[in-house]
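Bit of a strange request maybe. I'm writing a small parser for structure token strings and I need a real example to test against, not something I typed by hand. Could someone generate the tokens for this chain?
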Amino acid sequence: MKIKKVLVSQPKPATEKSPYFDIAEKFGVEIDFRPFFKVEPLTSKEFRQQKISILDHTAVVFTSRHAINHFFHLCEELRVAIPETMKYFCVTEAIAVYLQKYIVYRKRKIFFGQTG
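Reply from user aminoacidic:
Good idea to test on real output. This should exercise your parser:
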């Protein structure tokens, strides 16, 4: 049984330098790119309706850079000051490093998986 088509759950790469194109050429397969997930921000009104208090939690899990942007924008909109003791868990190191845009990067506060 030969594989003819592969479904990749992310947007199509902007450049031809992606390894997906090399795989398609090498093995003669067709690759379809379909993003399965779309991270959209909540409005402050929608967030308040859920009756969740950010400050009741001691850690946050981030799966993407968009999630980080939306989280900190929401905190700013709600006028919530994130405490220094908050811990952050990230899927990859790249996402963890992106946190520097919003907080002081400290190894004791930020955790990420080695394999993603």
